[in-house]
Design a protein that fits this description.
With 238 residues, the chain is an alpha+beta fold. The protein contains six helices and eight strands; from the N terminus they run ααββββαββββααα.
């Protein structure tokens, strides 16, 4: 059995580690509860999207080989922009799929058309504006810029994002998603960009958390009357 001085050291270490880590443990618990009690499809905003939407079919398209692209074509996708077909080529440029003309960007009206196809009927647009850059904590981070952000009249502060360069419906953001995103930040402890699960802070707190748990087990072992009685019996037998 450890002596009284060592037991006091273990107790003090456990107490201060618990005090230091308690707030983060609380965040982990709250965020974990929120994640487990919410429907991830609702967080993604599926209840605001027109999930039955299918891209329009077009006829009389030119062959992609007719496009004036010196480096050749690696990837290609078809876009419906205001009932006009466009090729999105090599993840960097739009071409009219009927006449081959280059298109550098989409207009606000075209963005509203794209959003209307992808969002549920009955949603009323409030404002539309262009964003050219976002911070690391922005809800549209790590997606194609520039983009149009379309705000709807809704209690959920609903917004849809359409990228200007490729004319693609990107994502939906709303109040529940923003709560999820904030709690995700506290869960990953990535207070710089929110999405990095390998931060030094997270690793350090995880290690300290393990030490706290182990010190709790050790504290129980050193202070348990049952363990003391058991050890005394063993010593008498010897």
């Amino acid at each position: 059995m450890v002596n009284r001085y060592t037991a006091l050291k273990i107790r003090k270490t456990h107490r201060y580690l618990g005090l230091f880590l308690g707030i983060q443990f609380l965040f982990w618990t709250i965020s974990g509860l929120y994640f487990s009690w919410t429907d991830i499809d609702d967080i993604h905003g599926d209840h605001f999207k027109n999930l039955e939407y299918k891209s329009k079919a077009f006829n009389n398209l030119i062959s992609p080989s007719q496009l004036d692209i010196s480096e050749g074509i690696n990837t290609i996708a078809l876009r419906d922009i205001s009932n006009t077909p466009y090729f999105w080529v090599n993840d960097k440029q739009l071409y009219n799929a009927i006449n081959g003309n280059l298109k550098n960007s989409i207009s606000k009206e075209e963005a509203l058309y794209i959003a209307k196809n992808n969002m549920k009927n009955g949603l009323e647009v409030d404002t539309i504006e262009q964003i050219d850059e976002v911070g690391k904590h922005h809800e549209y981070r790590e997606k194609l810029l520039p983009a149009y952000v379309i705000s709807y009249k809704s209690d959920e502060a609903l917004k849809a994002y359409v990228s200007i360069k490729d004319g693609k419906f990107q994502t939906v953001r709303h109040r529940s998603w923003r709560w999820f995103d904030f709690l995700w930040m506290t869960h990953t402890m990535d207070y710089e960009g929110r999405d990095n699960f390998n931060t030094i802070v997270l690793r350090a707190f995880s290690l300290l958390g393990l030490i706290t748990v182990l010190s709790g087990f050790l504290l129980w072992y050193t202070s348990s009357p049952s363990i003391r009685k058991l050890l005394k019996r063993k010593n008498k037998k010897k």
